[in-house]
Amino acid sequence: MIGRFAETRPALVACGIVFAYFLVLAVPGLGQSDAFGGGETETSVASMVAQLRFELGLAISVLFVVAVLGWFAAARISTLPRLRRLWWILPPLLFTSLLLFVAIVIGVGADVPFPAWQALLSLIVFVALVGIFEEVLFRGILFHGLQRRMSTLAALVVSSLLFGAMHYVNWIGGQPLGDTTLQVVHAAGGGLLYGAVMLLTGSIWPAVLLHASWDGVVAITSTIIAEVAPAVTTATSATAAGAASGGGLAQLLLLGFEPIYGLLLVGVFLYLRQRRPQKGDLGHHT
Q: Which of 108, 129, 246, 247 suits a disulfide with 55, CB 3.0-4.6 Å?
């Protein structure tokens, strides 16, 4: 019954699910004394690992929702990625590796200890769960629901904007509005990247990998930078690394990589679809 209703009103159901999760994430912050920007930005390893159980519940629940809807294949969750297109994810992986390397060099120069292996293991599990939850929700459920009612490009843009806006739950939970808005803009650009990767590869799992790797680097880099320059309060590891290295152009380039590369991949997808359309290849699912 639920599956049939979802098939007749896919966009409405998908948006409703996203809104329900927004409430799940936002409501707990309403009762805090530092709600609506009264606290500080928290992107350290410790702050992320502390939410491990909650994130596990989110990941399990969103997969259960997909199972109820019967959208595993349609939302590209049960499909394997096209191997010949996986090389498109190498530049973002190299970028995050470079960002991590810079942070480690800064940390070593300032004699800041690297997080313990137990914390790193917990962090890996946490960012994997975040990647699964957010990619299944936005590039899986929401994108598929929207794609049934609008063009693929429009569904990509709308789902990316909503993905960015979802991060305002951090402001409700106490994160400063300026940091949160910067995070929202960056997340919307990242959504274009993850969505384009999903479209090119035909599966959400490469996007999950990129998403998890970025969040992991955010946590490690922010932790190191906080030890080196405690006065620097930022929403992403990119801004932290940019501030630590002198800010300005370096910071702008770091923040712009994901959105710019995402737009490039969107262009690649549109070109490939126009040049050689394939059955079921990034078009509307029925």
A: 129
**pLDDT tens figures, 158-212:** 999 999 999 999 999 888 898 889 889 989 999 999 999 999 999 999 999 999 9
- Taking a C-beta distance cutoff of 8 angstroms, is the pair 204, 75 a contact? yes
Q: By residue range, what is the domain housing residue 118?
A: 2-275
Listing DSSP states for 139-177 in one string gives IIIIHHHHHTTS-HHHHHHHHHHHHHHHTTHHHHTT--H
d(CA 251, CA 244): 9
Task: State the amino acid at position 146 in one-letter form.
Answer: L
- The answer to whether position 99 is within a domain reads yes
Is 283 a member of any domain? no
pLDDT in tens, 127-171: 999 999 999 999 999 999 999 999 999 999 999 999 999 999 999
Task: Decide if 226 is inside a domain.
Answer: yes
pLDDT of 96 over the 60 cut: yes
Q: Whole-angstrom Cα distance, residue 137 to residue 203?
A: 14
Name the amino acid, one letter, at 213: S
Number of independent structural domains in the chain: 1
% of the chain beyond a pLDDT of 90:
55
Q: Answer whether 206's CB lies under 8 Å from 83's CB.
A: no
Task: Confirm if 99 and 241 have CB atoms less than 8 A apart.
Answer: yes
Pairwise CA distance, residues 142 & 75, whole Å:
9
Long-range contacts from 19-26, C-beta under 8 angstroms, 24+ separation: 21/58, 21/62, 21/137, 21/166, 22/166, 22/169, 24/58, 25/166, 25/169, 26/169, 26/172, 26/173
